[in-house]
């Protein structure tokens, strides 16, 4: 097991290097430091002196990959790529274009994002699987038919509709919870209730249908027919055997939400005014702060790789037939 985890970590290094190179190319080759200075200064006829001053203050006045003015190893280290990208591997994201420390901002905004993402993930998984099992248990009946119809309808509506409708009905008309904002401590619950409910409802249609498909595929396999032949009830077959054997595809699908547990929901946090990592990323995109965007892309890649490793390890727990050498 330890050898497997070590190998997967080694595999992650070239992946992260590739992600780093791609994001660097997108942000510094397509948009040169001069272009970044013009966008940040916000002046139509900005002077060359102002551009050079902006670049020097933020370390963008050096060569991109190779500094021919230096000797030896400094040709590679005294560059924008080394100073702005290599330090990410030790989770030192530097400073944003407005001077704030990105690492500290991420630490302070991580808890609000987790406060939304974790309940949406855990409660949503329980709700989706429960409803999907219910639909499979009553398959070929009106419960299954109308369940599929409702799921298709729910997944056909944009998540923006649920956000706006929820704010209008629950907050503005009924005044049950605040329409936006965030407070720490115990008072955070009243601000997080509506975003969590909307997050679960907005993803219900697609997830329930997906889990229903997984369970229906399991119902047609040999072990299910064998269990029925032994006289086991349909309920026992479904909840004991089918659910257990469907855990591998469920775990595989769960890995894609691991980065969201930390990065938060971009739309929900922005519309509800929650100071999480999602709204932090949206604000950086709007202000064209490339340092923050690159840091969030790199952090998302790291979290996704961690999710893949955890998923592979969890396979051995739910299915003892799988062995990691």
What would CATH call the architecture of the largest domain? Answer: Orthogonal Bundle
Alpha plus pi helix count: 17
Structural class: mainly alpha
Instruction: Give unreliable regions as ranges.
Output: none
Shape: globular
Multimer state: single chain
Whole-number count of domains: 2
Strand content: under 5%
Helix content estimate? over 70%
Order of helices and strands: HHHHHHHHHHHHHHHHH
**Major β-sheet annotation:** none
Mean pLDDT: 83
CATH class of the largest domain reads: Mainly Alpha
As for the CATH topology of the largest domain, it is MetI-like fold
Please report the distance between the alpha carbons of the first and last residues.
7 Å
Number of strands: 0
Question: Summed up, what is this model?
Answer:
The protein is mainly α. The chain has two domains: 18-90, no CATH class; 109-318, MetI-like fold, CATH 1.10.3720. It has helices spanning 2-29, 33-41, 48-58, 74-77, 80-85, 102-137, 142-155, 159-173, 188-202, 204-219, 222-229, 234-245, 247-254, 258-263, 266-272, 277-287, 290-318.
Characterization of this structure:
The chain is mostly helical and 325 residues long. The protein folds into two domains: 18-90, no CATH class; 109-318, MetI-like fold (Orthogonal Bundle), CATH 1.10.3720. Helices cover 72% and strands 0% of the residues. The chain has helices at residues 2-29, 33-41, 48-58, 74-77, 80-85, 102-137, 142-155, 159-173, 188-202, 204-219, 222-229, 234-245, 247-254, 258-263, 266-272, 277-287, 290-318. Helix 6 crosses helix 9 and helix 16 (277-287) runs antiparallel to helix 17 (290-318).
């Amino acid at each position: 097991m330890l050898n497997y985890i070590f190998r997967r970590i080694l595999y992650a290094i070239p992946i992260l290097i590739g992600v780093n190179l791609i994001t660097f190319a997108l942000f510094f080759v397509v948009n040169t430091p001069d272009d970044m200075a013009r966008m940040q200064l916000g002046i139509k006829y900005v002077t060359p002196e102002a551009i050079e001053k902006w670049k020097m203050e933020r370390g963008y006045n050096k060569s991109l990959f190779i500094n021919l003015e230096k000797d030896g190893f400094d040709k590679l280290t005294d560059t924008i790529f080394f100073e702005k990208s290599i330090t990410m591997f030790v989770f030192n994201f530097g400073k944003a274009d407005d001077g704030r420390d990105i690492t500290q901002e991420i630490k302070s905004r991580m808890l609000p994002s987790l406060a939304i993402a974790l309940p949406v993930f855990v409660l949503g998984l329980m709700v989706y699987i429960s409803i999907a099992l219910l639909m499979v248990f009553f398959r070929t009946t009106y419960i299954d038919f109308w369940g599929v119809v409702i799921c298709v309808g729910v997944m056909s509506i944009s998540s923006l509709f649920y956000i706006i409708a929820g704010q209008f009905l629950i907050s503005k008309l009924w005044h049950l919870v605040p329409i936006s904002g965030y407070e720490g401590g115990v008072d955070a619950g009243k601000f997080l209730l509506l975003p969590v409910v909307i997050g679960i409802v907005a993803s219900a249609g697609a997830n329930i249908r997906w889990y229903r498909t997984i369970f229906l595929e399991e119902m047609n396999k040999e072990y299910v027919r064998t269990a029925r032949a032994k006289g086991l009830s349909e309920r026992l077959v479904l909840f004991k055997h089918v659910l257990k054997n469907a855990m591998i595809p469920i775990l595989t699908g769960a890995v894609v939400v691991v980065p969201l547990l930390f990065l938060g929901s971009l739309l929900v946090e922005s519309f509800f005014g929650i100071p999480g990592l999602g709204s932090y990323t949206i604000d950086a995109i709007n202000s064209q702060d490339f340092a923050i965007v690159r840091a969030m892309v790199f952090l998302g890649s790291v979290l996704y790789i961690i999710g893949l490793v955890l998923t592979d390890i969890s396979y051995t727990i739910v299915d003892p037939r799988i062995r990691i050498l």
